[in-house]
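Please review this one.

:::
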Amino acid sequence: MERGIEVVRRWAEEAVRPVELLACTPERGKSTLEALNVTERSPLGGIAGRTGGILVDSGWLRILGAGSERLARGLAEWNGLGGRLRLGGALLVGDDAVGGFFALNGGALPGGVGNIFYLAPDTLEWEDLEVRYSGWVKWAFTGAPQAARLEVNQRERSALASVGTARRSSSVSTFFRKRRAKRYASPLQRADR
């Protein structure tokens, strides 16, 4: 059986977008695995234990790992593991260049447990992308339609980069958006009501 990091490296070799696996110290990788209570057998464990994170498309999308000089926030620190949890019942696993966040649902968000959710900065609503962590990572690298619902629109992304914001916040959210996207209010939004 392939270890998680070997699978991730193979996906990176097949990538249609620039993918950079950042280095981390062995100590930081080990402590992140322990904080997550996972092994390196899965892509999540491979990324957490063997990378400082991953920059996709020159940092347009950032996938969290153990943390590194170039991506200082790691999975353990960013989520408050071992202390005050940032988002109890879900694990923040990535973010995009326009302020959106990706989370692995552990039951905090109504919808598929184990699915990746996206918090769009314009709506402050969590959207169930209806894809698991491995499928999300594979899509980020390869754009494989079986791993995600929709493909990136290069012109939209270029327009976003020049403007900085857009009506639907980012093309990242449209990658997975379905015609009838399920939306869930952010815990931050609920606290304001």
User: Anything to note?
Assistant: Residues 9 and 21 are 8 Å apart (CA to CA).
